């Protein structure tokens, strides 16, 4: 990120997204429009001059001077609890980006797409779904979303709305809703096989989530016959 400037960012909106997460809309003067899958870096500065910064995936792209992110509060975190629980509209912070050029989806792509998310890893994949919709793309998408419980699911209302060409499968790992045909449990090869596109369709596969989840799912995709070069991954550690 050499040469990428920090820019003044102002919180325009803040809304609760799940039990421990919030979406923030920021005005970032001079920031280029992002591409779905990219990230921005956020920096907070304390009164004594101490700074802390973290990277967050863009939840929505396509508009310059705007950065929309969804943040999950991490116990003991320096940045995420403040962004989720305490920050208010009008507060100023700093941002720089967009960052990244490999884990991205662009509307000129024509191959089918399989998206597989673990927890808050759904954020950049949701940006891809929204970018597809905004562009009027007809590329078929399939999303497999692994989440601990219904209460921790991001974008729940939006993902429940009909979106032609986008199929959504939710895998609950800790607590399944009453009447769910699938019991709670970790994502399996069967889930990936039934919820994603078959390898014969030569889809692009995007996998995002905690490191262990991403490595496990990537191995499943390769074992099912997917071209490893078509499997793109984005992972994060405990601090998000």
Automatic annotation (TrEMBL):
- Source species, domain of life: Bacteria
Positions of the FAD-binding FR-type domain: 4-105
- Record's keyword annotation contains Metal-binding: yes
Pfam families reported in the protein's UniProt record: FAD_binding_6, NAD_binding_1
- Can the keyword Metal-binding be found in this entry's annotation? yes
Entry protein name: FAD-binding oxidoreductase
Cofactor(s) the record lists:
FAD
Q: Which UniProt keywords apply?
A: 2Fe-2S, Iron, Iron-sulfur, Metal-binding
């Amino acid at each position: 990120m050499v040469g990428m400037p920090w820019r003044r960012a102002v919180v325009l909106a803040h809304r609760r997204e799940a039990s421990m997460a919030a979406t923030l809309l920021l005005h970032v003067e001079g920031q280029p429009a992002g591409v779905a899958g990219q990230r921005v870096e956020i920096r907070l500065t304390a009164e004594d001059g101490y700074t802390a910064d973290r990277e967050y995936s863009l939840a929505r792209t396509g508009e310059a001077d705007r950065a929309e992110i969804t943040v999950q509060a991490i116990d003991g975190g320096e940045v995420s609890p403040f962004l989720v629980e305490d920050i208010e509209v009008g507060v100023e912070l700093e941002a720089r980006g967009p960052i990244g050029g490999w884990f991205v989806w662009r509307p000129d792509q024509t191959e089918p797409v399989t998206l597989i998310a673990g927890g808050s890893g759904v954020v950049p994949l949701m940006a891809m779904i929204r970018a597809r919709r905004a562009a009027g793309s007809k590329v078929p998408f399939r999303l497999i979303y692994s989440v601990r419980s219904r209460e921790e699911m991001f974008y729940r209302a939006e993902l429940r709305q009909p979106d032609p060409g986008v199929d959504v499968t939710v895998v609950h790992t800790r607590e399944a809703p009453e009447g769910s045909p699938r019991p709670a449990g970790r994502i399996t090869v069967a889930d990936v096989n039934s919820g994603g596109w078959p390898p014969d369709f030569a889809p692009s596969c995007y996998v995002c989530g905690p490191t262990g989840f991403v490595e496990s799912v990537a191995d499943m995709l390769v074992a099912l016959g997917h071209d490893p070069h078509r499997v793109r991954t984005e992972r994060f550690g405990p601090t998000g």
